[in-house]
Design brief:
Strand order of the largest sheet: 1-2-3
Shape: globular
Length: about 90
């Protein structure tokens, strides 16, 4: 439980018009990023307790088998919606 709390507190999620970036860690740092144009899909995992307290996991699938799992996200539906809107906006520019 303490591990999950530390991971939640030390995770930074950035969605820009070109990239999706997840930085996590306190002592050791892990950075995962994928270009918005390379995202194939965005999935959401949320159990009953997660729905009650508005948290869940977001899984971003990129081209070439690239997979970014963000395990504890407050309001994961908002993140999923934002990413899908960014993907749609990028696709309409091409």
């Amino acid at each position: 439980m303490i591990y999950l709390i530390i991971r939640y507190i030390t995770t930074e999620i950035v969605v820009s018009n070109k990239r999706f970036i997840v930085k996590s860690g306190w002592i050791s740092r892990s950075v995962s990023e994928v270009s918005i144009s390379r995202i194939e899909g965005v999935s959401l995992k949320q159990g009953i307790v997660g729905r009650l307290f508005r948290y869940g996991s977001v899984i971003v699938r990129g081209t070439g088998g690239n997979l970014i799992v963000v395990p504890i996200v407050h309001d994961p539906m908002a993140l999923q919606s934002t990413l899908q809107n960014m993907i749609s906006a990028y696709g309409s520019k091409s």
